[in-house]
Design brief:
5-stranded antiparallel β-sheet, 5 strands, alpha+beta, elongated, 137 residues, single chain
Length: 137
């Protein structure tokens, strides 16, 4: 999912996302928002930008590092290799693991069916055009 994916709502904070109701492109989303607002007799609509939801792997990263540390210690009695792991080294591993999990999911066509809702942009329909009037907090 690209960052130019939107859903339309006529009520602030009332979001219902499905793959079928997401709209790709701001121009297309505005046009659909105008149409929906006019159909329902409203003069305000909201576009909510969406981004693909992906699993957060920090817990898994910690468990994997602990498992590797235990294997090194148990198998070859080395307790120094992973001692004093810095926050930066852990973060590097965590980011790499997130990328690996994402690539694996995509390659096997197992995209999670969910999104993160980002900003909610408020539009007013004026003379058949969408005029941005603000952004919800």
């Amino acid at each position: 999912m690209k960052n130019n994916t939107y859903i339309i709502t006529l009520e602030s904070g009332c979001y219902e996302w499905t793959r079928e109701n997401e709209i790709h492109g701001l121009k297309e989303a505005k046009a659909a928002g105008i149409k929906e607002a006019q159909r329902c007799g409203k003069d305000i609509f909201y576009l909510v930008r969406c981004s693909q939801w992906w699993p957060y792997t920090a817990g898994a990263a910690y468990m994997i590092i602990s498992s590797i540390k235990n294997d090194i210690s148990d198998e070859i009695h080395d307790t120094n290799t992973l001692s004093n792991l810095s926050d930066g080294e852990f973060k590097e591993f965590e980011i790499g693991l997130e990328k690996l999990v994402r690539q694996w999911l995509i390659r096997n066509k197992r995209i999670p069916n969910g999104v993160h809702f980002e900003e909610e942009i408020i539009y007013k329909v004026k003379d058949g055009k969408a005029v941005r009037i603000g952004q919800s907090e």
